[in-house]
Amino acid sequence: MSEVRLGYFSPSPVLPRVITALAADGILLHAERVASSLAQFAALAAGEYDVVVTSPDNVLAYRFAARLGQPLDLRILLGIDRGLGLSLLARPEIRDPSQLIGRRVAVDVTHSGFALAMFGLLATAGIRRDEFDVVELGATPRRRSALLAGECDATMLNAGQDILAEEAGCNRLMRVVDRFEPYLGSVLATTTSWLDAHRGLARQLAAAWTEALRRTTDPRYRSETIDLITAEMGLSPTAANLFYRTLVNDREGLIPDGRIDTDAWATVLRLRLQYGSGASMGAETESATVLAAVTDREFPPNPTS
């Protein structure tokens, strides 16, 4: 039996479908939750993971900015979602972005990922980067717990964690797709060395993933999907139905065919150039050129049906 090791952040109804489909083909997918994007890419570089579910900006950061000391040669296999409700959530007493001045705002890591979208959101509200304190608290579920515990005043949440925070009384201050649309929320990525050595396995993985994305967004399987949401994510029936609506939403839901929208990719790149270490990318700032540098023409695979 072949094995694939995956590092991911948040639970979803897609992953169990991928695991089941691969098992039927004799492939064992070991899926492990990660503490942070830094830990995720350190493990990927060390060969502890074969593939990761991550923000596309993390691919840019570790491919071009050499966050681990040297650039990682990375490839995106497919796009997974458009943000899944990615929003700035704040403590119950905070109802307006202006109240975050002088407050603690949590991110996974400061230099990449959803942090850049957050800096962009606050900038559109007229709030400068030096007007609030940034604390690094790791992956999305950890930040949601920190927000509820009062360890921070606001943070970026998505993938059902935003709904859990709202149920606990937190306020959704700003939604990414209201300011930066279209947006690309997460991708399935790997190293070029693993892809070159396991191209057939990668095709099977990507095909199983796109089929899981299609099934999850197919209204014929709505009841099954909501059951998976409840089982995998611990959401209440009301929250599970809300999250299902997010999953199938054209603006910020799943990407059924796994194909990356070039305008959404351009949004991610623009946020990096404006709010991240854009200088590290050198002359490679043209969106199509950068996308070509981190993708492979075989992926995502063509639909099987």
What does this protein structure show overall?
The protein is α/β, with parallel strands linked by helices and 305 residues long. The strands form 2 sheets. A 5-stranded mixed beta sheet has the order 2-1-3-10-4, sandwiched between helices. The model has no long low-confidence stretch (mean pLDDT 95). The protein contains 13 helices and 10 strands. Helices cover 43% and strands 17% of the residues. 49% of the residues are buried. The protein has 2 domains: 2-83 and 183-293, Periplasmic binding protein-like II (D-Maltodextrin-Binding Protein, domain 2, 3-Layer(aba) Sandwich); 87-179, D-Maltodextrin-Binding Protein, domain 2 (3-Layer(aba) Sandwich). This is ABC-type nitrate/sulfonate/bicarbonate transport systems periplasmic components-like protein. One of its GO terms (cellular component) is periplasmic space.
